[in-house]
């Protein structure tokens, strides 16, 4: 039987424990929502002050050159690349995940139209993150060329849905609700065997689980930086394109930052070579700069060590919750098989929203997703084993007492 003292001992023996010191975390909070918004790196306040007061305040527009603002998207992309198995000059950090998906999906469909114009189907999962599906719907509406979005109800149904008419398979590596993780290499191989291209959303993978886009022979990958990468609320996203495909077509958002000769001010567009063509407009320098603070912490460890701790944390939490909260109608929807699990744990409960609100009131911050899904994110950089223990005990107390039924927890907030 696991005890709190045993969890404290695990923290004392944790080789990654010191990484927590690089983050600003309130002392009265157990933060289990890094899968939605990562904690603030301590260095970010100083970096923001430096940028605002010195680079912007004193350097003014000169800082595009003197402070390296113009190349910041590429430099940060190189820093992030190792976390997803990419090489130098293969990643840029820019725009949002949704915008980057629009770019790569449009590019992939263009590639396929040149190869086989009969391929007009985009395959994805109905449980994919909604914005990915909305972007696909929007692009289909713009193209108006008979494209179709074909959705399947389970990960196991993906391959059966791919046919000779399939252009692209668009998947999220780690499902945002259940935490189910695809075998990227095996799935990509099957997608390619069917003649389709693979787009991977790494929003719940980058910085949380080991990813190797080259080993998997992926075609395109996008993802955000504000979750496990701790870039800050709404921080710019990233995009990677397999070098074999990168220069084959231009992405449709042909803004001046992607131009081959930006300051020639030419009246027609000519894309840069390589991943820089996936840049679009002027970059948001303040929010871009914050991303480096989070990425710097990853240089102190490696993804193998982070994955080992992640699985230990999620295994522990599942075990404690199922023991402490037995009989309260909780249903684990996250895979028990570690090889199929990301870094968050989800339980379904008939009153999941209310329970999460009661937890937040007690200082345990998780989040809620319809229908009935309570999510708990475990970020190995700063989550402790005792956090898993304490959160499970507080969850049990709330369920034992029916505290979740109190009126204040029934109020629906805009963000759940």
Note down, in words, how this protein is organized:
This protein has helices spanning 4-12, 43-56, 63-66, 72-81, 97-115, 130-143, 158-161, 184-193, 243-246, 285-298, 303-324, 352-361, 385-401; strands spanning 23-24, 30-31, 40-41, 91-93, 121-125, 148-152, 166-172, 197-201, 220-223, 238-241, 331-332, 344-348, 364-365, 367-369, 373-377. By secondary structure, the protein is of the alpha/beta class. The strands form four sheets. It has a seven-stranded mixed β-sheet with strand order 4-10-9-8-7-5-6, sandwiched between helices. The two termini are 34 Å apart.
Primary descriptors:
globular, alpha/beta, 36% helix, 416 residues, 15 strands
Strand line-up in the sheet with most strands: 4-10-9-8-7-5-6
Number of strands: 15
Uncertain runs with pLDDT below 50, 5 residues or more? none
Q: Residue-averaged pLDDT, rounded?
A: 97
Structural class label: alpha/beta
The general outline is globular
Spell out the helices and strands N to C. HEEEHHHEHEHEHEHEEEHHHEEHEEEH
Distance between the termini: 34 Å
């Amino acid at each position: 039987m696991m005890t709190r003292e045993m969890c404290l001992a695990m923290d004392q023996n944790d080789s990654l424990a010191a990484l927590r010191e690089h983050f600003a975390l309130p002392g009265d909070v157990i933060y289990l929502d890094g899968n939605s918004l990562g904690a603030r790196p301590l260095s970010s306040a100083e970096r923001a002050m430096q940028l605002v007061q010195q680079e912007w305040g004193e350097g003014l527009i000169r800082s595009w050159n003197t402070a390296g603002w113009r190349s910041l998207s590429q430099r940060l992309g190189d820093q992030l690349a190792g976390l997803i198995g990419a090489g130098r000059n293969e990643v840029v950090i820019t725009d949002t995940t949704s915008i980057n998906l629009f770019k790569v999906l449009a590019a992939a469909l263009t590639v396929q139209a040149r190869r086989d114009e009969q391929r007009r189907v985009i395959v994805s999962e109905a449980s994919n993150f909604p914005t990915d599906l909305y972007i696909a719907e929007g692009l289909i509406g713009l193209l108006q060329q008979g494209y179709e979005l074909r959705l399947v109800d389970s990960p196991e149904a993906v391959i059966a849905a791919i046919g000779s008419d399939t252009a692209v398979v668009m998947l999220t590596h780690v499902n945002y609700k259940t935490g189910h993780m695809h075998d990227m290499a095996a799935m990509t191989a099957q997608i390619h065997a069917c003649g389709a291209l693979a787009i991977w959303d790494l929003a719940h993978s980058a910085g949380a689980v080991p990813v190797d886009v080259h080993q998997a022979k992926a075609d395109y990958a996008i993802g955000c930086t504000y979750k496990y990468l701790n870039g800050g609320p709404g921080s710019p996203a990233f995009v990677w394109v397999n070098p074999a495909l990168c220069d084959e077509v231009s992405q449709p958002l042909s803004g001046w930052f992607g131009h081959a000769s930006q300051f020639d001010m030419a009246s027609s567009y000519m894309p840069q070579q390589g991943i820089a063509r996936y840049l679009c407009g002027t970059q948001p320098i303040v929010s871009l700069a914050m991303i480096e603070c989070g990425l710097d912490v990853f240089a102190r460890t490696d993804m193998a060590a982070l994955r080992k701790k992640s699985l230990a944390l999620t295994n522990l939490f599942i075990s404690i919750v199922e023991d402490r909260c037995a009989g309260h109608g909780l249903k684990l929807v996250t895979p028990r098989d570690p090889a199929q699990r990301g870094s968050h744990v989800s339980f379904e409960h008939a009153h999941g929203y209310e329970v999460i609100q009661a937890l937040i009131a007690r200082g345990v911050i998780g989040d809620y997703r319809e229908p009935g899904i309570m999510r708990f994110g475990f970020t190995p950089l700063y989550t402790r084993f005792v956090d898993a223990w304490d959160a499970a005990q507080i969850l049990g107390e709330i369920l034992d007492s029916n505290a979740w039924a109190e009126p204040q927890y029934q109020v629906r907030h805009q963000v759940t």
